DNA polymerase IV
Amino acid sequence: MSGGPTILHADLDAFYASVEQLLDPSLRGVPVAVGGSARGGVVLAASYEAKVHGVQGGMPGWRAARLCPGLVFVRGHFGRYQELADRVMRVLGDYTPVVQRISIDEAFLDVSGSTHLFGPPAAIGARVRQRVRGEVGLPISVGAARTKHLAKIASQVAKPDGLVVVEPEGERQFLDPLPVSLMWGVGPVTERRLADRGIRTIGQLVEEPGPALERLLGKATGATLHALALNEDPRKVTGPGRAGSVGAQSALGRRAPTPELVRSVLSHLAERVGGRLRAKNRAGRTVTVRVRFAGMRSVTRSHTLEVPVSATLTLTEVAERLVWQAIRDQGAAVDITLLAVSVSNLVRQEAVQLELPLEPEDPWRPGSPAGSARWALDRSMDAARARFGRDAVGYLPATVRRDAGVPDAFRELAERDL
DNA sequence: TCTGGGGTCCTAGGACCC
DNA sequence: TCTGGGGTCCTAGGACCC
């Protein structure tokens, strides 16, 4: 067991925005927002020049424009993001085989077996930053510490474009003055609950007894936070885990839920979800839909089938019934603003789709063509799309709806490996 | 002026089984 | 005749993360 700071967390700074500044030198030193516009949409990422004015990812474009006069909106080169991030990950892999990528732009590294080759963790962190800047052209921050939680906090503190190493003797001194919001698992709600009790720093959190925290935040959150504050974090750096669910969603603006609209949107979503499942030889038994109504209230409805499914038409039909159930449960006629479809309870599904028969009395029983025939049809359409392009074939409602929303390339960036 | 899209995990109640 | 308790699955909602 090593007691040194052998876990590194490497995190590209303002990743999408930094890539735009790399590709277009006229954007360097300028406040940049990727996605959205001054009139609408949402900002997906902001450069540091924009962040100092309070612009953040997820913020409506009009608000960002108001906060930051002179903000430049760019559409985004989504194809390049994956390519550049992959190059960065290859640099990280030069220093240890134990790299756990947790999103497109960040990863944990365990360098305990590498120090005899590359020197102490601080030297490895510095070398990584230098190479990513020199070979890829992007700024990256690195934190090094004894645990994943501490390393991640260290990289946040190091931003932008910095390196922070926390030696074991200095952990408490480092952690105690920091705000609780830097901890993993503390979002806006938990932050407020803690603040209501006068707890704002990690040092104050340590003073709070574990049982008191569990009463305040719930058993799991309370226990986890207590342990993390005390620097007890047993998690190891591992490979990527398999996804437990696959979903897709689409924001609609504000629309009356007509049968045509619901059918066409769900068709599109089911095609995305089913296609990803089939591409990885997977299928799932539980179909969940989410409907967001005007006013941001959203509800979910789910149904668990007897057998796993991945056929687009079956997913569409089950989702459709669930969506109407959710809308009916609302009572009054309300506009909808988003539909989502997700499939969980996943299993491997090799060559054959064992989708039939469902019991005849099952109200969710798909009509004809039979499930296995649907699956075979989907497979041949998947193949045609692979050869001739995404729009070559498809169920009519899905092809009708090639909306002008977020580009598919952006959606793909967020997908997890199945 | 009205908010994207991909996920994970936890809680709590009810059904059901042993 | 009356009673208990544990485990698992399903459903709905919510907090959180990138």
Residues 353-369, 399-404 of chain A have pLDDT under 50 and may be disordered.
